[in-house]
Amino acid sequence: MTDHTQPQQPYYPPRPPYEPTRPITTEPGTTVWPSGSGGGSTPPPAEPAYATAAPAPAGPVSRRRAKRGVGLMAAVAIAAAAIGGGTATLVQQLTSDSPATTAASSVVSGTNVSASSTGTVAGVAEAVSPSIVEISASSTSGKSTGSGVIITGDGEIVTNNHVISGASEITVRTSDGKTYRAEVVGKDPDKDLALIKLKDASGLKAATLGDSSKVRVGDEVVAIGSPEGLTGTVTSGIVSALDRDVTVAKDTEDSGSGQGQDQQWDPRQGWPFEFGGQQFNGDTGSSKTTYKALQTDASLNPGNSGGALIDMNGEIIGINSAMYSPSSSSGSTAGSVGLGFAIPVNTLKADLEALRSGGQS
Questions:
Q1: Is the pTM of this model over 0.85?
Q2: What is the C-alpha separation between 86 and 90, in angstroms, rounded?
Q3: Active site residue 4
Q4: Angle, to 10 degrees, between the axis of helix 60-83 and the axis of helix 85-95?
Q5: 272 near 281, Cβ under 8 Å?
């Protein structure tokens, strides 16, 4: 009996359940494989070997294709360099295993608060204190102390008119302890503003003037000045009211005596002002001026006059000018009770060119 044997069929492995990834040919000699599901460039799975083809000899055609691919890579690199740093960074990210790093550099000037300290009293104080000075004004009637704000690197300083009115000699001390002589450039008694200029000064840190029209009740603020001669004193609070009509004495009369001369007030007694029909810190005299003021509960004391009221971005929003200081039983001026007033910085900005040209001096 003869066994009947079935002819053996060739074995073909099962085809994968998905369509094998096919190369995308962009042009002769340049082949791009689509990305695999893992996010990287993955070659396609090997197809069943139904037939074995002899490898093509590495002849002139293959070498030309290789050179063409190298030429394309060089062209891409040249185009990236021509377009700029952004494309160069992209090329670096695509061709390097390690993440690309970029160095961002920015020029810090004025009173910019560092990003990590924006919104903090400490950050504002650190940034703005170098732009606040102590002003000592001497006259025949004595010596007074106030504050000022540096607005240019060569020593332009804005302050209150009442701080320097009647002064025969002005000395300024900066936050680093250096002292300078100063002269009056211009003053505007109607706005209680004055501009002085330091002699032989350079490289000072100028303050950044903000926009007082954007100030809202409840905004946090910082005040820096030299109350009672304590240079660089920092206090904080909020804006408690806007557009207060504050009336202060002008320097054209001696507290209403009609003598027609500049009057320098004793800062230890506070700057006389009126609000709501009442007088505070002494008689304002018969010659007076009224301006719209920002009200703050940041602690202000005699000597803060001419200093800065600052928002939490480090920008000047006002020049401190008046404060209510109730008298103590001894007759001297008591401390701040949270009623301070500042000239809006937009008033200063509108008056600055007039002050530089001499103002009403």
A1: no
A2: 6
A3: no
A4: 140
A5: yes
By the 10 Å C-beta count (0-12 exposed, 13-18 middle, 19+ buried), 136 is classed as buried
d(CA 359, CA 361): 6
Segment 256-262 mean pLDDT = 37
Distances (CA, A) of 149 to 166, 246, 287: 20, 21, 27
The pair of three-digit structure tokens given for residue 352, joined into one six-digit string:
């600055």
Which structure tokens are listed for 77? 């690199």
Cα angle for residues 34, 38, 40 (degrees, 5° grid): 50
User: How does DSSP assign 121-151, residue by residue?
Assistant: HHHHHHHHGGGEEEEEEEETTEEEEEEEEE-
Check residue 96 and give its pLDDT.
Answer: 43
Pairing mode of beta strands 315-323, 208-209: parallel
Which candidate in 129, 165, 188, 192 is catalytic? 192
Three-class secondary structure assignment of 302-317: CCCCCCEEECCCCEEE
pLDDT in tens, 39-73: 444 455 555 555 555 555 555 555 555 555 555 55
Catalytic residue among 226, 236, 305, 325: 305
Q: Which long-range contacts (CB under 8 A, 24 or more apart) does 257-265 make?
A: 257/285, 258/286, 261/166, 262/139, 262/165, 262/166, 263/165, 263/166, 264/137, 264/139, 264/141, 264/142, 264/144, 264/162, 264/165, 264/166, 264/167, 265/144, 265/162
Q: Out of 129, 136, 162, 226, which one is annotated catalytic?
A: 162
